[in-house]
């Protein structure tokens, strides 16, 4: 009878040890991951923002001008990528009016 109790305790201690190791791994993963507030936009939203057709967006994708994600048949764009694309075309004024 004592052997059974001891064997059960060994299993419990081993199980608890494995749970502790699992919890520690999850906590490490959580600490290394940073939450993202990134917004994803559809091609309809991006085309309205850039004032171009959805076909032009497809040309941008095909020519590697714009980064995108494809999930099944759905195309998504990171808002920050679109902002970077818009800002890459920004030019400062060189003539100041007085």
Architecture overview:
The chain is mainly alpha-helical and 98 residues long. Helices cover 59% and strands 11% of the residues. The protein contains four helices and three strands; from the N terminus they run αβααββα. It has helices at 2-32, 43-50, 54-62, 79-88, and strands at 40-42, 69-71, 74-78. Strands 1-3-2 form a three-stranded antiparallel beta sheet. The chain is elongated and about 85 Å long.
Rg (CA only): 27 Å
Query: Main β-sheet: number of strands, strand sense, barrel status?
Result: 3 strands, antiparallel
- Taken in chain order, the helices and strands follow as HEHHEEH
Number of helices: 4
What is the overall shape?
elongated
What's the short version?
The chain is mainly alpha-helical.
Features:
elongated; three-stranded antiparallel beta sheet; 59% helix; 98 residues; 3 strands
Topology:
Layout: H1 2-32, E1 40-42, H2 43-50, H3 54-62, E2 69-71, E3 74-78, H4 79-88
Antiparallel strand pairs: 1-3, 2-3
């Amino acid at each position: 009878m004592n052997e059974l109790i001891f064997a059960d305790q060994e299993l419990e201690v081993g199980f608890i040890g494995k749970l502790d190791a699992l919890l520690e791994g999850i906590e490490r993963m959580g600490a290394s991951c940073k939450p993202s507030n990134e917004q994803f936009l559809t091609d309809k939203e991006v085309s309205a923002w850039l004032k171009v057709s959805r076909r032009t967006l497809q040309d941008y994708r095909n020519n590697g001008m714009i980064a995108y994600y494809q999930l099944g048949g759905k195309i998504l764009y990171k808002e920050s990528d679109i902002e970077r694309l818009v800002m890459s075309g920004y030019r400062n004024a060189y003539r100041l009016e007085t």
